[in-house]
Amino acid sequence: MASTDYLKTRLNTGKEHKPMARHVIIIVAYKGDEWLPDCIQSLVESTNQKLDVLLVDNAFNETLYQGKLGHHTLQVVKTPKPMGFAEANNFALRYVPEDTKTVCFLNQDTISTSGWLDRCLEVLDQNDTIGAVSPMLRSYDGKGWDMTFVDILKQQPDFSDEWLNVDKDCPASQQTVLELPATAMIVKWPLLLKSGPFDPLFGSYYEDFDLCLRLRQCGASLAICPDAFVQHFSGSVSQSKDAQLRRARWVLRNRVIYRLRQGGSSRLEPFMKHFVLAFPRHFLRACIGRKGSNPVSAVSKAFLDLIQILPRLISDQTDKQKWQAFLDEFQWNQTKTKQAPSKPS
Q1: Domain residue spans in the chain?
Q2: Which of 47, 75, 315, 330 sits between 20 and 30 A of 280, alpha carbons compared?
């Protein structure tokens, strides 16, 4: 099927959802008509694995294809309202069946290169301790690196410039990291059942790092696969001025939440550093218009957002109680009991 034919069949959510295979791909579609044809077409052509693609209609999509794509299956699930990235992916996780082996969170603004999924799955198959893996992320045209991805790599404790000097003919071993972006992140399903889904507190941005933190707390390692590549257009849903302001607000807000959680039960020192000291500095830079600063409105709204959840931020115990309340409301423990694989006899 040519990518231009992808949107010819209209969304039909009235059909019964069919059982899915062991490798599930979740793609959240939000204003996705420009991106989805190439995203899905390149994905299904990139692998011989039998995939079941869950396409989340998260608003403002005109037409969506649903059905067979060669030996792959694509089905559409529609959210009741527009959701943040975390919530929309969680919504899709309700449809993941018992026999699933891995779940891949894939952005709509990606292009798959040949074999990337297979190589990432090999890393997971060959390493019991690795619970999640990501390919290397290139720019959308494939000519350079995704700069957001490069920034993430540079924050990793063992980063070396050699990580970016990739020779496709001489595959390197995987690189262990602390954080993976959810742009094309593959997670072992039993581990995800143990760690819990994305935290909707984040909405969008840093929800993937927060999930990585919980995966590591479950004893899993995370890895980058150096000889697997996905091309990514960073910011497909934040191209308008309003969307850019909203993104700046969420990034500022969520960065503080994530860094406080990194501190574990001792939150006073990171709270003082990131909330009491950093935000006035952000606000001052915004007021004087320093290069690279965020707009005043974004900084102010992020600060007010954090004030509203202040008891949760400063108390590890309260934060854990709120998280457990969400899991109970989401009925995640029932999902875990129902879907977790039985122990071998």
Answers
A1: 3-237, 241-326
A2: 315
78-111 confidence digits (pLDDT tens): 999 999 999 999 999 999 988 899 999 999 999 9
Q: If DSSP states are collapsed to H, E and C, what string results for the chain?
A: CCHHHHHHCCCCCCCCCCCCCCEEEEEEECCCCCCHHHHHHHHHHCCCCCEEEEEEECCCCCCCCCEEECCEEEEEEECCCCCCHHHHHHHHHCCCCCCCCEEEEECCCEEECCCHHHHHHHHHHHCCCEEEEEEEEEECCCCCECHHHHHHHHCCCCCCHHHHCCCCCCCCCCEEECCCCCCEEEEEHHHHHHHCCCCCCCCCCCHHHHHHHHHHHCCCEEEEEEEEEEEECCCCCCCCHHHHHHHHHHHHHHHHHHHHHHCCCCCHHHHHHHHHHHHHHHHHHHHHCCCCCCCHHHHHHHHHHHHHCHHHHHCHHHHHHHHHHHHHHHCHHHHHHHHCCCCCC
Q: Give domain 3-237's CATH superfamily.
A: Spore Coat Polysaccharide Biosynthesis Protein SpsA; Chain A (3.90.550.10)
pTM over 0.85: yes
Name the token pair of 317: 């115990």
Q: Which residue has the higher pLDDT, 327 or 16?
A: 327
